[in-house]
Design goal:
alpha/beta; globular
Length: about 200
């Protein structure tokens, strides 16, 4: 399953600044996942089966890949989906500068509900962290994280810290560094900024 899912995305190597502010030597073009729903369908069904025992009442995903996955999982589980919207400051600096908020019209819907928070992929978890914090502000009860890909170990650490079950189809080794500890920066390799939340 890991290799078949990986075949749906394009991988690039280089020096990338992630939305979280971390730097990485790899980047995956995740938007390709949703171009062929039929190829993605078995993986959505597999992730839905893993999330079902946690009995979520709502699925939530951050814009945009997470929101698309949330819609597909919600249809599979026959429960509602909600989305968080992305808000980026004009000149983002530091780690985790981007915010994600549940729209006003959906905030009452999640209050008091058991909720699975999902994204197409999680590495540092910028979108997941911000969405999780806002869901708590809404009075929701997040109980699980779900992802097609988990890159590195930060998602597992975050899930453990916040007492969330983590369900993933394709865990992968993945190096990320804060800018001041990045070996690629030390080697004067030019950095490309990527805007997708991973």
């Amino acid at each position: 399953m890991h290799d078949a899912l990986l075949a749906l995305v394009a991988a690039r190597r280089g020096h990338f600044q992630m939305e979280s502010g971390y730097h990485s030597e790899q980047w995956f073009e995740l938007d390709r996942l949703f171009r062929d729903p039929e190829k993605l369908r078995p993986f959505v069904a597999a992730l839905a089966r893993r999330l079902a025992p946690h009995r979520p009442e709502i699925i939530c995903g951050p814009q945009t890949g997470g929101a698309q996955l949330a819609d597909l999982l919600a249809a599979e589980l026959k429960i509602p989906a909600v989305h968080s919207e992305r808000f980026e400051p004009p000149n983002p600096t530091g780690l985790f500068p981007v915010k994600y908020n549940v729209p006003a019209a959906q905030r009452a819907l999640v209050r008091g509900k058991r909720l699975a928070l999902v994204d197409d992929a999680i590495s540092a978890g910028s979108a997941i962290r911000a969405t999780h914090a806002d869901l708590l502000d809404c009075g929701a009860h997040p109980i699980a994280l779900g992802a097609l890909f988990v890159f590195g170990d930060k998602a597992a650490a975050y899930a453990h810290e916040h007492h969330l079950s983590l369900e993933c189809l394709a865990p992968m080794a993945f190096n990320i560094w804060p800018p001041d500890a990045c070996p690629l920066c030390s080697g004067n390799i030019p950095v490309a900024r990527v805007s997708d939340a991973v």
